Give the backbone structure.
Amino acid sequence: MITLNRVTRIFESRDGDRITALEDVSLSIRDNEFVTLVGPSGCGKSTLLRIVAGLILPTAGTASIGGAAITEPRSETGIVFQAPTLLPWASVLDNVLFPLRMMHKMDSASTDKAAALLKLVGLQGFESKSPRELSGGMQQRVAICRALVHEPDILLMDEPFGALDALTREEMTMELLRIWGERPKTVLFVTHSITEAVVLADRVVVMSPRPGRIAEIIEVKSPRPRSFDNEASPEFHEATHRIRQLIFGQRHVGPGRAAA
Amino acid sequence: MSVQAAPQLEKPRKRPSAALYEVVVPLLATAAGFLVWEAICKAFNVPAYLVPAPSEILKDTLAIGPTVFGHSMATLKTVLLGFVVSIAISLPLAVLLTASPAIASALYPFLVWTQSIPKVALAPILVVVLGSNELPRVVITVLVAFFPLVISSATGLMSVPPELIELSRACKASKWSELWRIRLPYAIPFIFAGLKVAISLAVVGAVVAEFVNADAGLGFLIVTSTAFFKVPVAFGALIILSIMGVVLFQLVVIAERVFFPWSTGNAMAAS
Ligand SMILES: Nc1ncnc2c1ncn2[C@@H]1O[C@H](COP(=O)(O)OP(=O)(O)OP(=O)(O)O)[C@@H](O)[C@H]1O
Ligand SMILES: [Mg+2]
């Protein structure tokens, strides 16, 4: 379980300005829960993700996983970024194996594990290809395999499909749901797409900027398995409508409802 | 539509002739240049002590062929030694410069200082200090050649996408494996861009050193033959120097293509 308790993060910029990226954020995420983060640019989504990843520390408050405070990156967490950032000199297979190499956890089963993951995302037969020979969507699939290869129990994704075209994006969203179905794990997923956030999530965390706060957490009641065809369903509509209201029409939201 | 389709079909067929454009055409152009040169010298009766015709250069240079070969080998040795030492100094230096801002600020003044002293003025002093042998020549060559290599290598080491550095931190990788598995490979296109500049500068540096302190080498040959008005031989030495520069440069290009084929596409971004 991931728990953030009154987390505040302040950045000091070079000219001495203090930017409050996150203020008083409390959130707890159950094991194997799928949580998406939406909110306007600069509201601290990436900052929150990086705190959970252990890449940066909170200025105040505590972040913990399973009761233990997060003080450094842990090896049971996988990360996917907006850009695939594959190693151009390594083959697809070696790119997937990269975290294991860096962690000195390579063994005889590693290659099979990586190949199985590539098969899972439909990239069977591309093992020895160079990343340059792959489309953007395929590269991002490789990056997802790379994040999964060390069998993390937590997967952090920062706008992983942000650089993809709308069609590939939908396809990848469904792909991710399928992977999550086959290999359940806790997922924290940042996106700018409200539809994407709702299709994926058990709960959508809506954030507001300056300072970065949680505006509301919305439970998505729409049953699984889901797809973009569900968009017309009342549960789906209710959730997207509420998120839009929170992001675009903040005046309608009474302060009493802003919950943590 | 069909008009557009035709040239598209032709494109793949043109590909084998890449070698034609890379090798044959430049060679033909060079040969044509020499022919024009020859023709002008003959037509206007230019005296050989001013600008000798290519045929005279060839004749006079070949006449002392073995000597010229010996001088060429001496220069080549200085160039290669200087180049290798430049690499041995520049790469660790680039790693140090990028390791911490404090080290960078401490080292930069020295680096800039080595670049601001005129090498031609330094050469005779180095001969006094280091003796009249290969050492001061290699030192001069290195001083002329290493700086661009340090700068481009350091730029390359810093060019790694921040996400990859975060990924490596998330994998709890040591600084050493971050350098070895991420930063250095990422810097390869930049390092080769620097190597291409360094090899060309190494030839310049070696000749400068030979002007001041040598009993052999093409720089020495130019100085002595012009002193005796053997201008065609001096021109011959000059041509050999330029060929040496081009060939060494191409060897670096080929080494990059052979050992780091993924790098050549990225080199555009690097340079
Ligand atoms: N390393 C840093 N140094 C200084 N300020 C930072 C740093 N990282 C983030 N910030 C600031 O913190 C705020 C939140 O940034 P963050 O990247 O978390 O936003 P975000 O919600 O991910 O935005 P986007 O949707 O555009 O990715 C921004 O105002 C940003 O300028
Ligand atoms: Mg972000």
